[in-house]
Amino acid sequence: MFPVRTSILSRIFAAVIAVSAWVGILIELNTIMSNGATLLPAIWAIFGYFTIITNFLVALLFTHVAIAGLRPGHAWAAGGLALSIMLVGIVFALLLQGLRELSGAGALANFLLHRLNPVLVPLFWLSLVPKNTLSFRAPFQWMLYPVLYFVYAAIRGTIEGRYAYPFLDAGNLGWTQVFLNAAAIAIGYLVVGAGMVWLDRRFVRPVLPRRWNGR
Predict the structure, then answer these.
(1) pTM of the predicted model as reported, rounded to 2 decimal places
(2) Alpha-carbon separation of residue 64 from 1, 93, 141, 161 (angstroms)
(3) Is the pLDDT at 64 greater than 90, yes or no?
(4) Residue 189 burial (CB count, 10 A)
(5) Which DSSP string do the residues of the chain spell out, in sequence order?
(6) How confident is the model at residue 208 (pLDDT cuts 50, 70, 90)?
(7) Buried b / exposed e across 70-109, counting CB within 10 Å, b at 16+?
(8) Which of 136, 132, 135, 51 is nearest to 86 (CA)?
(9) Positive or negative, the Cα torsion across 206, 210, 212, 215?
(10) What is the pLDDT of residues 99-149, one digit of tens each?
(11) CA-CA distance, 7 to 37, in Å (whole number)?
(12) Count of C-beta atoms within a 10 Å radius of residue 188
């Protein structure tokens, strides 16, 4: 098990991340509902976005870590979510920043979901999650999540006639450009994921219990 100080710190840090994610999601939900939508349509609306789905998964994982503490299976899951939430932050910074003017609660949600959590989750993974647990298969395994989102977003956008993100808008860009955009993002995702595995194999703190080895 972890030293007591490390265990307490990981739970506190996890609680901060969980609260940040839950608050950001609830603000977004409330914004949709304040414009006249009822609960279920509002949930459907916000869960069209990779940002919301990823932060929701972050909220679930880090709520569990805050309550139960770090467990062996969290190393792989935390690594995958760190990579995916970094994708959220990088894509926002490069492609989406400034497309909407936000103020008040909307600006706070945007900061929490697009800026703060994409920093906090990787920091948690780097500083507190046990290392030397990943193989170079991990980035390809983690890749399944954004691939599934791409399929979901493409089908949903085609049916609804409205796409979650401009770079996925097949109606304006055409499918060839959309697939090129997705491929570029996928390559970047795998490169950063490989970098995370490289780091994982060079940092070994906290010391792993014997049962963690050989993951």
Answers:
(1) 0.89
(2) 17, 29, 22, 37
(3) yes
(4) 21
(5) ---HHHHHHHHHHHHHHHHHHHHHHHHHHHHHHHTT--HHHHHHHHTTSHHHHHHHHHHHHHHHHHHH---TTHHHHHHHHHHHHHHHHHHIIIIITTSS---HHHHHHHIIIIIIHHHHHHHHHHHHS--S---TTHHHHHTHHHHHHHHHHHHHHHHHT--SSGGG-HHHH-HHHHHHHHHHHHHHHHHHHHHHHHHHTT--PSPPPGGGTT-
(6) very low
(7) beeebbbbbbbbbbbbbbbbebbeeebeeeeeeeebeeeb
(8) 51
(9) positive
(10) 676 667 889 999 999 999 999 999 999 999 988 889 999 999 999 999 999
(11) 42
(12) 15
**Which residues, at least 6 apart from 193, have a Cβ–Cβ distance to it below 8 Å?**
83, 138, 139, 142, 143
Residue 157 tokens, joined: 């956008």
